[in-house]
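Final report, closing paragraph on structural work. Over the funding period we assembled a curated collection of sequence-structure pairs, and we close with a single example.
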Amino acid sequence: MADVPYALTLSEVSYPWLMCDSSVLDADWRGSSTQLILSNALDASPQQFATTVRLIATPHFLWIKYDCADADVWSTLSEHDTPLYTEEVVELFIAPGHESPTRYFELQSNPLNAHFDGIIHNPDEHRSTMSLDLSWDPQWFSWTRTDASGWRCVWALPWQIFGRDSGKGVWRANFYRIERVRATGVVETSAWSPTLRVPVDFHIPSRFGVITVC
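Its predicted structure, as stored:
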């Protein structure tokens, strides 16, 4: 496995307030979750528009909360599997196992709560050999809210959509956000584990962080 400095451990827990409805947007996650701060995917520097990711592992779900500071939240795409990444979006790439994956799952949602999900085949980290399988159509849950400070969303991902009955074990994963400032045309690309590629490229699985669920 490549030397990846981004790693964390999640202890499997159960909380009665974690329910599959919009109440999870109002819950206080701060004392119950593991917090990540995303940084510039190019060089790990801080971003103007901060992104916080909070994680909770339960026996049946991986719960993720994205808090996205944003002065102008926008999106137009509302259909499933449309190219959400061309607008404002948050993303997760994830695969079970220790090694840098050549096959991994990609999930996205936007401020309109649209979903994108597919399986990526990426044998050598070159776009010319990478392929996307959109026939994967898992059932997962998300809730989104926008206010004056930005937008936030909560995802509930059943472990079973990744082919596992339990989340326990080691995973390779990366969390991303794309912020597009309409007034200036500036694009911020943020990551948990920066991919350090110019031009920016999220599809660098050797840079995925390591998550251990126990």
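The chain has a mean pLDDT of 96. The two ends are 20 Å apart (CA to CA). We thank the funder for supporting this effort.
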